[in-house]
Amino acid sequence: MKKPNMDEQTKPRPNGHIWMSAEQFYNAAELIMANESVDLNRYVLPLLVNYALCVELSLKAAEGTVMCKPVSQAGLISASATKSAVRGHELDKVFAALQSDTQRKIANEFSVATGEPLMPLLEICSNYFIQARYSYEQIGAAYDLTAVRTLARGLLQAVRVFDQKSP
Cα–Cα distances in Å, from 6 out to 19, 63, 66, 94, 150? Predict the structure, then answer.
């Protein structure tokens, strides 16, 4: 049996470690949204960044890979490194980089979870992470907080269901 080296990757499949990171950014944004004493105008950029990063990581969690060191001569398995099979920050492009079957299944689960189509929201919010993170570089921008929040919540649910249905 051939032993894997650090350059070899397994077949892309849903990754719970990446998904848990996405969930944490969503939870942080939801804490701000749930606090009735908070003036949301003072937290728009952190909300946008957290929700958009949740979306990005949710998409990346749909196709994760694991890189392993070779098994030792004693048969011990070393720690592995987890990463996404797709890269980037532009949400519509990250989605487009996923395998077509993954795209179809995620879009379907998103629609079931939210009652809305995925692509229009991905297009609206595609650059929110970059724009909000570097807002001082923008000439001006308008953001749809409801859209990015719906996108984040829906993709967390969609990718979780997708993972549960994956072989």
Answer: 23, 18, 9, 24, 38
